[in-house]
């Protein structure tokens, strides 16, 4: 923390946060202990429990909390599951203050110790200053850091510099199902007095240097299903005489990307927004340690050798990843079977100005074309169960200025202005529906291991992140009031 640039008020707040680290970590431990995995149907109850825990925590702070029922959704196998409610919370209504709405999610990606964790993923464990646990960074830690910062003002009996609103959901990892409808329904009510929207659900670009994020890629998720009949078959009895679904599927999946990472679907790059000279220059000025990034990733070599190429391919160009095959034998040992039905799962991270319906058409036509050349009698079905649009904001907005100042105060250096290769569905929804300024203010470092084994948040990032949010409240309040005083004076003159 750079104390030279901190005010007496900030010092008081930061000292309180430092002194209460163990309480904040205890709260995170309690949240991580709930296996609120929104992907696996049998864990939906835990997601519900997690929503209640978050609601109780905010209510204890004095916030008004409304859990909005989203009804249910149907899984591809026909099973109907209740959706967790969306939490809309509110604290403070001072007309002098700006209203800042914070978004976060309390569901997590699946995790099992056997996947390769050193510790139980649902028991927050501190090792060498790192707090390991599923959801520590994605996204329970940042949600709690924001709440800790609000609580600090309250406990110290300090005047709240902003009015707070909260949108907390439990289905982000499954594509934020049901959320867009709530935003649309609440646009004229809950969101009507919101001035700014802040999301803290992504990572810095480096392990040490803070960042501010002004764009994220979208995601088009695909299922490609190949079926030969209703039952699995013995590979000794039928192998060699039938068109095997898994062979068809592997050929289809293999046709998607070449060995240089280039997507092979005709037309897919056609509408990608052209790179401007200004953008290229911006990328040149970003500090990015290729070696550190490679170490975080744990691979031997990247597809590209320069910083600019890597950033462009993470933020500015689409990428295609294959995630898995449902129905294929994947357990240890040998099972001499020919699976009757297999479903390949892949997704395309898309960028401005790609259109989701065009992407879908291109994918379907490409796969049908490849399949028809195989003369297979099997049944092919291609679907796009989820389509999320990319998001891009103007980083010259007041919101970014306030966050940059707060980062400088807490971390002693200004942030990298970055885009993100991953997807936060709500970012574009907020922008389109509410038309308010949206910013991503991450507190997780690049080595946090989101979605991976050994996910963590460092004690440093969690605690300094809490201070960052508190400093941000003060900065946005000042800048907002200055702006309004100036515009008021201009109106009078
Ligand atoms: C960045 C955020 N923490 C995250 O992990 N988002 C998910 C959302 C998603 C996209 N498609 C399906 N879910 C991600 O980027 O994978
Ligand atoms: Zn997340
Ligand atoms: Zn995630």
UniProtKB/TrEMBL annotation:
GO annotations of cellular component type: cytosol
InterPro entries: CNDP/DUG1, Cyt/Met_Dipeptidase, Peptidase_M20, Peptidase_M20_dimer
Record: active site: 107, 172 (proton acceptor)
Pfam families reported for this sequence: M20_dimer, Peptidase_M20
Residue span(s) of domain Peptidase M20 dimerisation: 217-370
Bound cofactor: record note: Binds 2 manganese ions per subunit.
Name of this protein: Beta-Ala-His dipeptidase isoform X1
Gene designation per UniProt: CNDP1
